[in-house]
Amino acid sequence: MTPPHSAADLLASAHVVALPMRVRFRGVDVREAVVFEGPCGWGEFAPFPEYPDDEAARWLAAGIEAAYAGWPAAVRDVVPVNATVPAVPADRVAEVLARFDGCTTAKVKVAERGQGIDDDVDRVAAVRDVMGADARIRVDANGGWDESSAADALARLAAYDLEYAEQPCATVEELARLRKTLARNGIDVPIAADESIRKAEDPVRVARLGAADLVVVKVAPLGGVEAALEVVEACGLPAVVSSALDTSIGIAAGVALAAALPQLDHACGLGTVSLFERDVARDALRPTAGRLVVTRPVPDPVALEELAAPPARRQWWRDRLTRCAALLAAGSAR
Fewer Cβ atoms within 10 Å of its own Cβ: the N or the C terminal residue of the chain? Predict the structure, then answer.
């Protein structure tokens, strides 16, 4: 993990921003983040508010790595990215996809609370209709199904030729059993592990138990680019790099990871800046022709000022960063 830096160092250049969403995503209407500058560039600290400090500290380690340590050398100059379709009604799918220039892969959110499998099928069917037969479609349940529901849902959704299903069940054991059930029933839908990687004390357990066909890795929850590369190598499975609804500052870290992977066979979930009304960077990392260029964006001072979070939220984030920096210094991050 990146060596700790004092909270005072980080807060000296920190800005707390609040970015309005175009559509509600993961229950979020406004995304808050802290961005700060170091000798290597800008870093981001934006764990979701419900995450405990010991988990959130890994996100701070990733931001510190970006600002103070830098990233491994890239082996590619551009990274293919997917469109992201939130749990919107089917009649809004075309509107969402229009924001992702040239993307030929879409990740579709399913298993949303308050919705049912019919909503998911309608949404995925709409994506297939808009993108055509040659597009790749993956679904992401965020662990929202139990084994039986996942098997039933994927049996229906398989008709739309899924690239894979991301975290259909919550636990590693459930994923392993689901893979066997799908194979036994002749349902050809590969399984990708996300939360079972980024929120696990032992992320490699997914590979040991045969619970996934590929892994989804996110820089911030794993503590940085170097840490994520180690997880991918230890798992020995194909990897997809994704984001955690980051600003362009955070997305740049995901792009750096994707650019450094020895092998990259799948489009990455790094196009989510397109879900914001506005971004902090001068040149926002939004996909062009379905790709992102490997670069380090710089915040626009005007955007930092106009997107500043309200005073009470700024203090909340500064206090949280201070606590997480103390955990890193004590070696207590999870």
Answer: C
